[in-house]
Design brief:
The chain has about 200 residues and is an alpha/beta fold. It is built from seven helices and nine strands, in the order βββαβαβαβαββααβα.
């Protein structure tokens, strides 16, 4: 098995939830952040979860991670956006050959998806891998970055995520069932509509 680290960026402000925290929304009977982190931990990979270093969202997010045996990294510059978490992931990767970025607000991703991505990445761990919709028409998440891109990731700025690191790269893709690779929920309406669909 390819040595892989999984980064769960959970330092965001959840601004579009208008006062509540999307990472505490219920997914299969537990908070979304705990659900996603437990799936990641079950793969056997090293799991890194970034949290804001202060603020009203920190205590509850930290509490739902208790007992999962993952590495929690506080991000003092979380206000900067996704780049702050990605930089932390690049610094914490250790000797891993790749870094999977697994967003915690994508409730349809399951353990089979993670296993498929990890196995596909292992076929060529020098090449970035990105999940897509089932028909391959839309790129989504998770994304696995090979170790050779960590230097670039370690100096990212702003809220563009890892897109800038992937510019000019030949991406391999891995189709996941349905639209689960692009189903991320950012607003109360998103969560309500998702529940109504009964996924």
């Amino acid at each position: 098995m390819t040595d892989l680290a999984i980064l769960i960026p959970a330092a965001g402000a959840s601004r579009r939830m208008r006062g509540s925290d999307k990472l505490l929304e219920e997914v299969h009977g537990e908070p979304a952040l705990r659900h996603t982190t437990a799936l990641a931990a079950a793969t056997g990979a090293q799991v890194i979860v970034t949290l804001p270093s202060s603020g009203p969202l920190l205590p509850a997010r930290r509490a739902v991670l208790m007992g999962l045996g993952v590495r929690v990294v506080a991000i003092p510059d979380a206000h900067e956006g996704m780049a702050a978490s990605l930089r932390a992931g690049a610094h914490e990767i250790g000797q891993a050959e790749g870094l999977m970025v697994l967003l915690p607000d994508m409730p349809e991703i399951d353990g089979h998806d993670l296993a498929r991505l990890i196995a596909t990445f292992a076929e060529d761990p020098t090449c970035p891998l990105r999940a897509t919709t089932e028909d391959g028409s839309e790129a989504g998440h998770p994304v696995i970055f090979p170790r050779r891109l960590m230097q670039e990731m370690a100096v990212l700025t702003g809220d563009r995520g890892g897109r800038v690191v992937l510019e000019g790269e030949t991406l391999r893709t891995c189709a996941l069932p349905g639209r689960r690779a692009v189903t991320d929920l950012d607003t109360p309406e998103d969560w309500e509509a998702w529940r109504q669909r009964g996924v």
